[in-house]
Amino acid sequence: MFDLRILLLTTNTIHHKYLIKKITESDGNNLSIIYCHKKKFRSKPNNTFEKKQYLYERSKFFNNKYYKPKNKIYYTDDINSNKTINLIKKLNPNYGILFGTKKVSKKVIQAFKNKLLNIHRGIMQKYRGLDSELWAIYNKDFKNLGATIHFVNEFLDKGKIISEKKLKLSKSMKCFQLRYYTTVLSADEILKFLKYKGRYNKNKYLKQKVGRYYSTFPSDKLLTTCKMFDNFCSNI
Q: Which position among 48, 68, 157, 232 has the lowest Cβ density within 10 Å, counted as fewest Cβ atoms?
């Protein structure tokens, strides 16, 4: 049993809800949530890839059922606003977790007393920034697909690494399934950290590398990149 106050800053999307569900189900966790967008916001798939991704995740995460968190939920349109910072201080969590938010300010990090973690669905020592799995595939770097959990500092995706887990590929995997697999990896690693209340090998990544920063993956390269991944997996 463990008893931690956790504050998750995220968005109201299906793979983020999976993390909410997993942390909530863990014994002793008291999870509150800040959704970083307007209350009425809902993300909708807008292309074939996103539709396949959404349908797969809905099936795998929630057995095609609607999941509504019962946690205490707050909303903000600006993660770095004074209102958000004051809320963080009021809730006084043991740990904060970022999952799918924009870069936070130094004041936000300080509000968490430097106990703020980030989930990066990629191998951060190679790929910082956005769409890490797609950039890895585009670079034909199939061995560097996975997830990283790290402490947050004032530099984007440069904080001390807690866990780095690479994805084991299989013959049946498809590109639109990657977000599901990296989210499951991320949730497992976060739960390990919370279970042991932050006790981990602090010397593991003393010589941690700084990966290259990548921005949003271009939509015109998505189809060919996904075919590249699917073909690679089919030949495993």
A: 68
